[in-house]
Amino acid sequence: MQGVGFRPFVYRLATEEGLAGFVGNDTNGVVIEIEGPAKRLATFCRRLESEAPPLARIDSVTVAAVTATGESGFRIVASAAEGQVSTGIPADAATCADCVRELLDPGDRRYRYPFLNCTNCGPRFTITRRIPYDRPQTSMAKFKMCADCQAEYDDPANRRFHAQPNACAVCGPRIWLLGADGSAIASQDPVKACIDRLMAGDIMAIKGIGGFHLSVDATNEAAVMRLRERKHRHGKPLAVMVRDLNAARAFCHLTEQEEALLMTAARPIVLAVRRDGSGVAPAVAPGIPWLGVFLPYAPLQHLLFADSRVRALVMTSANLSEEPIAIDNDEALERLGKIADAFLMHDREILQRCDDSVMALVDGAPQLIRRARGFVPLAVPLPFDSPPLLAVGGHLKNVFALARGRFAYQSQHLGDLENLGGLEFFRESLTHLMQTFEIEPEAVAHDLHPGYLSTSWGKDWAAERGLPLIAVQHHHAHIAGCMAEHLLEGPAIGLSLDGTGYGTDGKIWGGEVLVCRHDSFDRFAHLEYIPMPGGDAAVREPWRMAFAALTNAGIDGELAAELTNTSKQQTRVMAQMIERKINTPLTSSLGRLFDAVAALVLNRREVDYDAQAAIELEGIAADEDDRLDRRDYVPELWSMNGVTLNTGAMWQAIVDDLRHGVSKERIAARFHSGVAEGFIFATANARSVTGINQVVMSGGCLHNRRLARLLRTGLEREGFQVFQHAQVSPGDGGLSYGQAAVAAAMLTKQRA
Ligand SMILES: [Zn+2]
Ligand SMILES: [Zn+2]
């Protein structure tokens, strides 16, 4: 991997061992030619792997003998740019402790310089146009290093030896303030002026590493509310940046693992349980017990928090709703001028948009909810060779993937393709990653859903190039991805639990027990189909799902209307839609079942963001224990017309509980346990039929930590070997990786 200080490290190691030769990058990786006494060569090889720099990742080492040339001294040779590339570009890494120390040291020549970095830290992916990763290929090309910086860059003993974005206040990028209308705001100290404005309640647009953030004082309720109104983001939680780990502990209850996650070089947003009375404004994350918290990862952010007035800042991607994050100065002024009160700009161009990554600990294991900065464009291994191909991903939360050989490269989180600029971002990012990895796809994999923008775009793109298309069923892709990630050969039993995915029968799936191989699957069992009156409208208004599920369970229409607070007229319309099947698809989705129960129990009629009702239901259940004291909450396994998990008795039980005044916290906990038990039971049945003992869990519902924990512990109790995602998201952000795995397996079989 380039840009992680590996060549300088090799240089130091060779020099220390008194060995001669050279180190260089070619497009296959790092090449070292070395000569000297055999014992020292052996020590060198051992230290090469054991002492590698923090950001380096060694996939494999190949050693071969060559004739000694008798040369003396060790050198670093220039990069070659031809051939097929496998070294790629490193991910962006948070400012390292050494650099932070210099930043805050009045005696250091980089004191308060917002763009310092070294070989152990700094931007990479977001400032690089193409490989090889060398300064002329980055947005640092226009800054000529001053003599001091150049001397560091050239000195093999220096931490900044060949640090491509190396810079200082004399020669590097700078910052300045602009008003909302783009007019200059004169200031001796733009950082201090920015803080003054934040403390006064202003909304600041701050240019960062992968794009602009919109920032307000997270302890100022009025400021947070104003940001929400201007950004048109009403309920969805906002991420909060705090000074350091101690500060994070003051705002959240953190486990040791969560603390470790906060400190990783990727510095993701981590979802953690928030402390009451910590001072964070209620509007930051209304209705849920968690807070998305993260630590400064760029020098400019460290400077903001070096001011004791700054405790916690909302730092949210600068965009309107789900549009792509703004990166260009002029673009930002145009798009954010009506949201931000002022801009903190800089002149180091961001070449790749990249949002902050989001992670959570699920049952003790880190899980990616949004895979972006700090992870992209790192490769995810595949268990078998893939021809060069493109997998276009899903519809919402789109991420595409390129694959070749034993690796897949997922794009950054691209967001919703149907939003303004969404497809443009997709094209821009695809062109860049194809160029970066020199992958020319020979096939295109897409979702079965004919209505996905990614599907129609992928079909057009393939047609222009005369490439074959491979349609991959949504839930098969989820499971195949998780199998591939763990290098499982299969077959495996797959629990594919999510919101919406197009089934092979044209219905909407999402509560699926599959028997999966990489290239094919059988549907063993699924949740009972329930009408979805209004289609997408039933997603935005979960009371529709509640009404449909209740009446489907045989509960009287009048009672269903009363329980869901539905008017007589609405009841009539719903009943007609369901009866006459007007715009009312059938769904086996677990996500929709969660919506329906949440709508009923929490009386939430509409949602502001995806899965809001389900997330709130998980939130209130948090204080109940796991033990299931009511078997009637468990969906019953029926095999009359195909194997289904019937939810009728569960709905009766919920209605009984509600009428007997059982608390909603209790009902929510019982529902989580019941769902888990139902799927565990179905999985055990699948095992008795197939003899398969490996269970792979995927789909957006696995973001529900309570459900994931209940499933895992329950399945393990039954003796199953259980696998969950580690490197890609279980939600639709991970879909393209699974599509790539399925397509690669199918193509390999075809060609064999
Ligand atoms: Zn550093
Ligand atoms: Zn300089």
Short recap of the structure:
With 752 residues, the protein is an alpha/beta fold. 34% of the residues lie in helices and 20% in strands.
Account of the 3D structure:
The structure is a single chain. By secondary structure, the chain is α/β, with parallel strands linked by helices. Residues 82-86 have low confidence and may be disordered. The protein contains 23 helices and 28 strands. Helix content is 34%, strand content 20%. The strands form five sheets. Strands 4, 5, 6, 7, 8, 9, 10, 11, 12, 13, 14 and 15 form a twelve-stranded mixed sheet that branches. Strands 25-26-22-21-20-27-28 form a seven-stranded mixed sheet, with helices on both faces. The structure holds zinc ion (ZN) (2 copies).
Primary descriptors:
single chain, 752 residues, alpha/beta, 12-stranded mixed β-sheet, 7-stranded mixed β-sheet, 23 helices, 34% helix, binds zinc ion
Outline type? globular
- Straight-line distance between termini: 33 Å
**Biggest beta-sheet profile:** 12 strands, mixed
Poorly predicted tracts of residues: 82-86
Which range does the strand content fall in? Answer: 15-25%
Query: Gyration radius, to the nearest Å?
Result: 27 Å
Ligands bound to this protein structure = zinc ion
Q: How many strands?
A: 28
Helix content: 25-40%
Q: Kindly name the structural category.
A: alpha/beta
